[in-house]
Design goal:
This protein has one domain (37-254): Vaccinia Virus protein VP39 (Rossmann fold), CATH 3.40.50.150. Strand 9 (138-144), helix 5 and strand 10 (164-173) form a beta-alpha-beta unit. By secondary structure, the chain is of the alpha/beta class. The strands form 5 sheets. The chain has a 7-stranded mixed β-sheet, sandwiched between helices. The protein has a two-stranded antiparallel sheet with strand order 1-2. It is globular. The chain contains 7 helices and 15 strands. The longest helix has 16 residues, at 3-18. The N and C termini lie far apart (59 Å). The structure holds zinc ion. Zinc ion is lined by residues 26, 28-29, 31, 62, 64-65, 67. Zinc ion binds at residues 26, 28-29, 31, 62, 64-65, 67.
């Protein structure tokens, strides 16, 4: 075995021991931790625009299962099983993270419909702008940091709304530039280096600003902007144990019961 691989393996085995403690708990793997690990990209843009939900964060990664804070936010919401979380039915998860796939594998009454544009091991491969799914066929959508990659996000939002059953919810997370009133986008930018410089990642096509919520409302969602610090009951009652980002808002979009 090459030395570098062995060193990496030993580090991975040692990390859960080094971070062991009582203050935090990973909702993905159950590890009891003194803290999560810092991690994330350190581009100047993240500080300059105060981008929430991306970039370097102190309490980002679980040292045991490598789940990020933004995955843990979704998991905490699912585990709390509020009225927005269906006990049975189809949950469409766009570009699902491994932690969510593991969680849903144990949910016998839920069909976890894993979708992506190109990755393997999915239930279905499709473009979010043209979903080959019937109208009103889905009980919940999880779209965690995907819309910033999609060429026409308004079409994608309309598609999500179309496939949801009336009254069903979608978790619609994206990185948000808190210091920008309006979304920065320029479809003419295709160079990966320029995208990284302007939008924060080489495959992002925009950087959402404070107008993200109004974009979702304009698409037809009945939107709640939920802070786990203000509504901890929606995240299991004591979500501070999960090492979540106190600035990250959960964008909870519901399909109105009346047709839109
Ligand atoms: Zn973990």
């Amino acid at each position: 075995m090459p030395v570098i691989t062995l060193a990496k393996r030993l580090r991975r085995q040692a990390l859960p021991i080094l971070y062991r403690g009582e203050r935090y708990e990973c909702p993905a793997c159950g590890s009891a931790l003194r803290s999560f690990m810092a991690g994330g990209a350190k581009l100047p843009l993240f500080k300059e625009k105060k981008i929430i939900g991306a970039g370097y964060r102190q309490n980002n990664l679980c040292p045991s299962c490598w789940t990020t804070d933004r995955e843990r936010l979704i998991l905490a919401f699912m585990l709390a099983r509020s009225v927005h979380v269906p006990a049975a039915g189809i949950i469409l998860n766009i570009a699902p993270e491994p932690s969510l796939c593991r969680y849903f594998a144990d949910q016998a009454d839920v069909f976890h419909l894993r979708a992506d544009l190109m990755r393997g091991n999915m239930s279905v491969i499709f473009d979010l702008q043209r979903m080959p799914l019937p109208d009103q066929s889905i009980d919940m959508v999880i779209c965690n940091h995907v819309l910033e990659h999609v060429e026409d996000d308004r079409i994608a939002m309309a598609e999500i709304l179309r496939v949801l059953k009336p009254g069903a919810a979608a978790l619609l997370q994206a990185p948000i530039a808190a210091h920008e009133a309006e979304t920065i986008e320029d479809p003419s930018v295709s160079d990966p280096a320029e995208r990284e410089q302007r939008f924060g990642q080489d495959d992002h096509v925009r950087l959402y600003g404070q107008d993200y919520a109004s974009r979702l409302r304009n698409a037809g969602f009945d939107l709640d902007c939920v802070k786990w610090t203000e509504q901890p009951e929606l995240f299991g009652g004591a979500p501070e144990r999960y090492g979540l980002n106190p600035e990250e808002i959960l964008f909870l979009g519901k399909k109105p019961r009346e047709a839109v």
